[in-house]
Design goal:
There is one protein chain. By secondary structure, this protein is mostly helical. It is built from eight helices and three strands. The protein has a three-stranded mixed beta sheet, with helices on one face. Helix 8 links the parallel strand 2 and strand 3. Helix 2 packs antiparallel against helix 3, helix 3 runs parallel beside helix 5 and helix 4 runs antiparallel to helix 5. The chain is elongated, with a radius of gyration of 26 Å. Its main location: membrane.
Length: 320
């Protein structure tokens, strides 16, 4: 069996490391901005009697923790692989993205619950101070959003961080609109109505993130790749390959794609040269940076497992 030794260009490696460090710094800045204003908003909520501000402060507390976890995931990903963690720590970013999506679900449910409480028991709020705090919060969240928006949006971890900040941004907009309506009309019901609207938006975004991160954690084929199409492409373009089977394609974090496969070769084919050609095709045409290729002549080495009930299907392209 031949493993893949990454022989990437130094320029690509340096560019990837630079992008990773930039993402890490952006998440840390956003975490500091969010945590700092969370304290200010909580104080403002107590002083104005605004449950909306207190609720948003609680939301930002959760987001601050999530952003710190996202930063730590980027930090862990720089650690080298170990004898126990042979793939390194890149998948921590996917796990954190999945967790972030789940926490957004919980936050949205809490918002709906709080909105129901406020509809049943509306309470007076100091609209003027609430408006000031909401404006400051809006400015802080816009700043945090633009800090993160300039990062790598291919990263699920970064997308999870952006999702939290967008939730805070929407919360600030809702608090701002609610403060204006309360000042002009005294209609307190606007606050829970806008809160439910925000919760619906958060539900939709969180579902998308959890579904994609969960797919990666289950080692599903990335949405951008077609496993059977890749197998057909290799058989068609790499000389000496009769068929590809037992092919598995997955991704650690949505960006680093990997594959294992069996390549059935024509008799007399140079196995080393063909395996090298397959890996070059996978990397150059399909964005699969790490591949393990098992060359075969004649029968598959795994055929002896069939009597155990682990049947291996040999199609012309790939096996599930």
């Amino acid at each position: 069996m031949s493993g893949n030794h990454d022989h990437g260009h130094d320029g690509h490696s340096h560019a990837g490391a630079h992008a990773h460090d930039a993402n890490k710094s952006r998440v840390l800045i956003a975490a500091i901005l969010t945590a700092g204003f969370m304290v200010a908003e909580a104080i403002g909520g107590v002083l104005t009697g605004s449950l909306a501000l207190l609720a948003d402060a609680g939301h930002m507390l959760t987001d601050s923790v999530s952003l710190v976890l996202a930063w730590y995931a980027f930090h862990l990903a720089t650690r080298a692989a170990t004898a126990r963690m042979t793939y390194g720590f890149d998948r921590v970013k996917t796990l954190v993205a999945y967790t972030n999506g789940l926490t957004v679900f919980v936050i949205a449910l809490w918002i709906v619950y709080e909105a129901w409480q406020r509809l049943n028991e509306p309470s007076p709020v100091l609209g003027g101070p609430m408006l000031v705090v909401a404006l400051i919060g809006l400015a802080v969240n816009i700043a945090a959003f633009f800090v993160l928006h300039g990062g790598d949006r291919e990263s699920l971890n970064m997308r999870g961080a952006i999702l939290h900040v967008v939730g805070d941004l929407l919360g600030s907009v809702a608090a701002l609109v609610a403060a204006l309506v309360i000042l002009m009309t005294g209609w307190y019901t606007i606050d829970p109505i806008l809160s439910v609207l925000i919760a619906l938006i958060l539900f939709r975004s969180a579902w998308s993130l959890v579904r994609e991160a969960g797919h990666l954690l289950l080692e599903g084929v990335p949405a951008s790749l077609d496993r059977d199409g890749i197998a057909r492409d290799i058989a068609a373009h790499v000389a000496g390959v009769r068929e590809i089977h037992h092919m598995h394609v997955w991704s650690l974090d949505g960006a680093k794609n990997m594959a294992t496969l069996h390549a059935c070769l024509d008799e007399g084919t140079d196995a080393h040269a063909t395996v090298s050609a397959i890996k070059q095709r996978l990397a150059g045409s399909h964005g699969i940076s790490h591949a393990t290729v098992e060359p075969e002549y004649g029968h598959c080495a795994d055929d002896h497992h069939e009597h155990d009930g682990h049947e291996h299907h040999h199609g012309r392209t790939a096996a599930r």
